[in-house]
Predict the 3D structure of the following.
Amino acid sequence: MNPRIFLIHATALSIAPIAAAFARVWPEAELVNLLEDSLSRDRRRDGRLTEAMTGRFLALARYAEHSGADAILFTCSAFGTAIEACKAQAAIPILKPNEAMLEEALALGPNIGVIASFQPTLPALEAELLDAARAAGKAIRVRSALAEGAMEALQAGDAIAHDRIIAAAARSISACDVVCLAQFSMSRAAEAATAASGRPVLTTPESAVAKLLRLLGH
């Protein structure tokens, strides 16, 4: 029986990139998409992760678990502590969107670049990366860049502008050992970011799928 993976999204832009990654890496998995796009709007409005928002994440995780999920992957990068709360209560594997990518980044060098197109993602991801480095006993330097306007361009259907903005951000932090694209929706710009930076570029979808494969013993 194929494993049932629940994908929980705070923006519709994340759905296509993770579906494409599963199609390439693990096509046998049964995918179930839950979209709750008011989460990203409320996170931007409130400027912080509230207790009520964490409660909504817990409810989504419980729903997925009660619906037969073998694992849950959250694809929304600005909600790390809420996802940690879900992990603490669940009996199945739950992945934060970036954890697998950050593990790969730590193995590639101490100077790590991070690019996001949603501003609240940056401080959340920087904290997650520093926590992972401390747990691994590694000293790192993080350089961050906001690809301002890239998400809005993609939402408006201008994928070329989206990729161009991300490539420019990658060029601005090219003194790193590796560049991480922080959101699932950014993965389409990986090739442009690699060309602009001259550095290895990691994306969240394929790293996450590969880790789920390992976790579930496939």
User: Anything to note?
Assistant: The domain at 4-97+206-215 is CATH 3.40.50.1860 (Rossmann fold).
